[in-house]
Design goal:
Layout: H1 2-20, H2 23-38, E1 49-54, H3 68-85, H4 88-94, E2 98-108, E3 117-127, E4 131-140, E5 146-157, H5 161-169, H6 180-199
Antiparallel strand pairs: 1-3, 2-5, 3-4, 4-5
Helix pairs in contact: 2-3
């Protein structure tokens, strides 16, 4: 009887966590970090990283396809895996730095349905003195179609991308030139910041 009571208590606590907090997010993040730590570290910081996923019932919205916000959430897991396997998080922590999402833009091209499998291909496009710029493609495994594409700015705090890469590569690293779409996006962000400063 005591064992049954303890099992019920644990189930009630777990249910309360899943109802009152987004416990599944933290479970998924732990699994993502664990899997990324078990992978061989990637030496080339510009190499693309693949993160596999499947659309679950918890991802579905009232229209019957994956909720728009879930794409960004899946991209969050994929970026974490990219930064771990490429050694960026380890180097950043050694330098006592941090990382925060500075901006993101996503374009949706096709809906993902229940139980559809996909892979998120993430790659660092370039960097500057303050941030890494990452492209993430959500690709349907059934036909290779790019269902969504995201552009992300990862702001580095307490250190810089240059210092992180110097620690990783043991030498100064010259980054690639920003692609035209990144330059256009940066200009949009600059104009948006200026507009918000002027309006306040």
């Amino acid at each position: 009887m005591l064992l049954l009571s303890m099992v019920l208590l644990v189930l009630v606590v777990l249910l309360a966590l899943f109802v009152s907090a987004d416990a599944w997010y933290f479970v998924r993040m732990l699994l993502t970090v664990g899997a990324a730590l078990m992978r061989r570290q990637e030496k080339d910081v510009l190499k693309e990283h693949g993160y596999h996923g499947i659309v679950l019932l918890s991802d579905i919205d009232h229209m019957g396809h994956m909720n728009n916000a879930r794409y960004l959430r899946e991209c969050d897991f994929a970026r974490t895996a990219l930064c771990i396997t490429h050694g960026i998080i380890k180097a950043m922590r050694e330098l006592r730095g941090g990382m925060v999402l500075g901006a993101s833009t996503i374009r949706y091209r096709r809906s993902l349905r229940f139980l559809q499998r996909f892979v998120i291909r993430s790659r660092i496009l370039c960097w500057d003195e303050k941030a890494f710029y990452v492209e993430q493609r959500v690709i349907m495994q059934s036909d290779g179609f790019v269902a969504a594409i995201a552009l992300v700015r990862l702001n580095v705090t307490g250190t810089s991308p240059e210092h992180i890469l110097r620690l990783l590569c043991r030498r100064a690293v010259q980054g690639p030139d920003p692609p035209p779409e990144v330059l256009s996006w940066l200009e949009y962000n600059r104009q948006s910041s200026e507009m918000l400063r002027n309006s306040s």
